[in-house]
């Protein structure tokens, strides 16, 4: 986005081949197909992470059982923080979760 004279802006469209964004409203059938009720999920697949469940401002690296596509790169490890954040890169400092 460029700032032009008189505080006007010009929006530049940048199309990428590594993702497609779609929004579904609550009345659309596809939104019901994609919804996962975590409370009703298969309990045999649920793993409770003891460190993240009982602490504040902590993060832990988790190995995934599947490839997670992130901007065209398949990831097998992510970092989950107690504040509800998911990090895809390396943890570079201790206050990452603050």
Domains counted in the coordinates: how many?
Answer: 1
Q: Note the main sheet.
A: 3 strands, antiparallel
Radius of gyration over all CA atoms, rounded: 19 Å
SSE run:
EEHHEEE
The end-to-end span amounts to: 30 Å
Mean pLDDT: 76
Beta-strand portion reads 25-35%
Quick one: overall form? Answer: extended
Uncertain stretches of 5 or more adjacent residues: none
Helix amount: 10-25%
What class do helices, strands and sheet pairing give? mainly beta
Number of strands: 5
Strand order of the largest sheet: 3-4-5
Number of helices: 2
Write up what this structure looks like.
- It is a single chain.
- Helix content is 10%, strand content 28%.
- It contains two helices and five strands, in the order E-E-H-H-E-E-E.
- It has helices at 29-34, 50-53, and strands at residues 2-3, 9-10, 59-70, 73-81, 86-87.
- The strands form two sheets. The protein has a three-stranded antiparallel sheet, with no helix packed on it.
- A hairpin with a 4-residue loop joins strand 4 (73-81) and strand 5.
- The longest helix has 6 residues, at 29-34.
- It is extended.
- The model has no long low-confidence stretch (mean pLDDT 76).
- It is found in: Membrane.
- It is a single-pass type I membrane protein.
- One of its GO terms (cellular component) is membrane.
């Amino acid at each position: 986005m460029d700032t032009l004279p008189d505080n006007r802006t010009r929006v530049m469209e940048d199309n990428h081949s590594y993702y497609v964004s779609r929004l579904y409203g609550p009345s659309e059938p596809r939104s019901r197909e994609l919804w996962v009720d975590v409370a009703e999920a298969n309990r045999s697949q649920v793993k409770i992470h003891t460190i993240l469940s009982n602490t504040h401002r902590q993060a832990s690296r988790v190995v995934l059982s599947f490839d997670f596509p992130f901007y065209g790169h398949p990831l097998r490890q992510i970092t989950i923080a107690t504040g509800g954040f998911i990090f895809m890169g390396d943890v570079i400092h201790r206050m990452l979760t603050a």
